[in-house]
From TrEMBL:
Gene Ontology BP annotations: aerobic electron transport chain
Cofactors demanded by this protein: FAD
Limits of the FAD/NAD(P)-binding domain: 15-310
The entry's keywords: FAD, Flavoprotein, Oxidoreductase
The UniProt record lists the keyword Oxidoreductase: yes
Family: Belongs to the NADH dehydrogenase family.
Pfam family, one: Pyr_redox_2
Protein's recorded name: FAD-dependent pyridine nucleotide-disulfide oxidoreductase
Any one Gene Ontology molecular-function term assigned to this protein's record: NAD(P)H dehydrogenase (quinone) activity
Length: 385
């Protein structure tokens, strides 16, 4: 069994409930069972599969099933248990759970020594017509199948396609769509609509310069400082942020990527323990996009931060159950970030945000990071603490 610093086991068997089977929840699961194989771990998640959501744009090239791992497989691999349910506890409920050390789900009582909230940030649901798609749609159908389904309908011949949102998700989908159209020789006008004056505006300007030059090479129209107002038939309604002018453009299919925003994230201390009204709940931890840590470490809503928080909370759960109860503070800083620009290109930064790399070097970094997580799913931890 791997050595865990500051952990002197006091209990041989822990009951741990993990709410959420995304990146943070799975990272915690693997870490827990790596250091305490006999732990009784239950994962509560409304899906039947763990979804590698950061790969959804690649479903224009690969089947959706390539990015799904059934929880039944994880149950067999790690000896955990999956309960199919969705929980959205309030702070008062968390207080009750801390006192009771059990929760009820699907008419079953689940006792726990520790509870980990790792439910992520829900994708914003919006009312939209049948020719507007968002990330939720790609969780159910691959990009290729979605496109072929729309193109087979005589009333939805894609003369113009709009991608709304120039953040990391929108950009990755934009380039996959562009290469998909080129690969299948589909004549179509492709455009990007973004509310800011440059794409990827949360990153150094080098990201924007490189990405927008590649958009030009592919003939992608760019409408900066433009907000999405809605879709009517095969027309997208837009507004100019600078002049206030409203206008329409033809758009047979529109893709809406408005980003993630959690209205009321859980608050956690420097060790990952949930804090409610200035009171720490010592047996309830949180990780991933559903929480904000009051700590020096990164709170970015990325898979990288989710994995690191999941690992940290798992280690701290074990330490808290041990004889010393010396917990590890969350100090992780992002080591880099890569945005895919189609099958053969990417843009990113490594070590320092100003160290921008594009092309093949960025693509290699992306592949290495993804390989790390794939190894973790097999039980092999190659991450540095």
């Amino acid at each position: 069994m791997p050595f865990l610093p500051f952990y002197l086991p006091r209990l041989k068997h822990l009951k741990i409930v993990v709410v959420g089977g995304g990146y943070a929840g799975i990272a915690a699961l693997v870490t827990l069972l790596r250091h305490m194989p006999e732990a009784d771990v239950v994962i509560i998640d409304p899906r039947f599969e763990h979804l590698k959501i950061t790969h959804l744009h690649e479903t224009f090239r690969y089947p959706l099933n390539d990015f799904l791992i059934p929880f039944s497989t994880l149950e067999s691999r790690f000896g955990c248990r999956h309960v199919c349910a969705e929980l959205n506890p309030s702070e008062s409920v968390l207080r009750q759970w801390q006192n009771d050390r059990f929760l009820e789900v699907n008419n079953e009582i689940l006792e726990f020594d520790y509870l980990l909230l790792a439910s992520g940030s829900p994708v914003m649901q919006v009312n939209k017509p049948e020719n507007v798609f968002d990330l939720l749609d790609f969780m159910a159908i691959s990009g290729a199948d979605l496109f072929h389904g729309r193109l087979s309908q005589t009333t939805a011949i894609a003369r113009s396609i709009s991608v709304i949102g120039g953040g990391a998700t929108g950009i990755q989908f934009l380039f996959e769509i562009a290469h998909f159209l080129k690969r299948y020789q589909i004549e179509c006008n492709l455009r990007l609509v973004h509310g800011e004056n440059r794409v990827l505006n949360q990153f150094p300007v080098g990201f924007s310069t490189y990405t927008q030059s590649k958009m030009t090479e592919l003939g992608i129209e760019f409408f900066p400082d433009t907000r999405y107002l809605g879709q009517q038939g095969e027309q997208v309604l837009l507004g100019d942020n600078l002049t206030g002018r409203k206008f329409t453009l033809p758009s047979s299919i529109s893709f809406l990527f408005v980003g993630k925003k959690l209205e009321t994230p859980f608050s956690a201390n420097i060790f990952g323990q949930v804090v409610v009204e200035d009171t720490t709940l010592p047996n309830i931890f949180a990780a991933g996009d559903c929480c904000v840590y009051h700590a020096p470490g990164s709170n970015t809503m990325t898979a990288q931060s989710a994995v690191r928080k999941g690992m940290l909370t798992a280690r701290n759960i074990l330490r808290h159950s041990g004889a010393l109860r010396l917990l590890e503070p969350y100090l992780h800083r992002d080591l880099g970030y890569v945005v895919s620009l189609g099958p053969t290109d990417a843009i990113g930064w490594l070590a320092l945000e100003g160290n921008v790399v594009g092309g093949m070097p960025a693509l290699v970094i992306k592949e290495l990071v993804e390989a790390q997580y794939d190894l973790l799913l097999t039980g092999l931890d190659t991450y540095l603490v």
